[in-house]
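Good morning,

Both structures are done.
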Amino acid sequence: MARIISVLIGVVLMGLGVWAIVAWWGAILVMLRAVVAVLAVLLGLGIFIFGLSEMWAGEGERPPSAAPLAHGPGEPA
């Protein structure tokens, strides 16, 4: 009996969902545009912060110099 009730509730909710999508299509498009805009801003902010952190992390790194290292007193030349 519980299975039948859950199936019926599911069908009723799907029907209400389809009706709501059709009835409020203009509002749904506005909401989708807003979500895309907010996600674009957040993604851009995240990439910007990642780029800044990569630039800051790379400031201390220096390429190795081509000059030979001096040998210590006990090491052969």
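Second structure follows.
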Amino acid sequence: MKPLNAAGIPKLLERFDDFKESEIRSLEIISPTEIQISFALQDKARAYDWVTLTLLFSGVCDAKLVDTNKLEYIDMSDGVSILYAENLFHFAIGAYKTEASIKDALLYIVSENIKYDEGAF
């Protein structure tokens, strides 16, 4: 897995079109401070071919999650938001501009680190 830094957030979101119209494949709570989410989405770098992208959040200090049996019903038309503020990554389903507004999201995770891994569809 590759670590994501604050400077890499815009490139990742642009490459995967903010995860718009993607599908959440899985959500796994590894430990109280580690959560992993996998998405099926299109990759601009691969001529919009479908790939699997897995995000691993470590050092989780706050989160609002949904039951795994409801993942397929989440509307991903607005994509995701990833913000970096106060030395923390703020991830949410939906389009949000501030770390405070992210807490209104259906699903959000606040963590110290994010790593990502690309895989076959």
